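Q: Convert this sequence to structure tokens.
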Amino acid sequence: MIIRYERPYSYAAHWARGLARIAFAIFALSLLAHRFGPLTTPHFLALASLSGVFALAGVLLAAIGLTRLWQVAAIGGIASLSALTYAAPPLGFFGFGAVQYLMRPKIYDVTTDTVTPPPWIKTPVAERSWLTRSPTVTPQDREAQIAAYPGLTGRRYDGALDRVFQGVRKVAGETRIATTAELGVENARADLGDLAVQGGAGVDTNREPDVIPVPAARPAPDLDPLPGRRSTDVVLQGEWRTLIVGFRFDVLIRLREEAETTFVDVRVASRYGAHDLGMGAAFAEEFLRALDAELLGIAGD
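A:
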């Protein structure tokens, strides 16, 4: 008489694989639609949260399936491992976000000038839906930024404004900043005074001029139209998106000529939500490092 041992069937393992596949499909499709399509960040996060719920349920059922496999050799080990694989991307996405949320300060706007931050040329506008936040940045937010990112400061370069502006333009393109507004770009035009003909070089100095020049009025004093902005500043505003997920950030770059040097400040703000998960400061530091490398040799203190 032959005795056959029939292994029990783990329904939990197979339900786990089905739920994890649904979670992965929702997450992948919403990610692609957000990065390359019309899906906005609030809708993407809502769909990603739904996928996280399915993925978590799949992981719990997969744990039951693996436990049954260990205890009674129930069929479903491969299904459980498959469920864990499918659930990894959505759960990893939220796990990383949760760690950054707990470790980073709850701010969405960072700047290298916390005293007089450069104002936006065009105030960013977005339909934030359920990702609401305070419209103003408080002094407490700036203090939290200083405590969390003490090394995030502006850069002073010994080069002329036009030279630094060229470097900023190049680095902005390399870091995928899409320029949306400009202000004071004419201030960065190269000084053409050196190209003028010097006095006495082939000019008859004894001849009276045909037109007597009239002295021009003294230029108006350099008044600040807005706190953090001068009429001689060069300001660039643009949009930057994270490489994989495509989160949107508004970027402002201010160039200011001071005593034969040029000072560069950067401001980065998340377009959605009250917490940027540290991505704003990370991008600002990345941009400034790239600018240092581009303008190597003319950086000052």
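Confidence is low (pLDDT under 50) at residues 191-203, 215-221.
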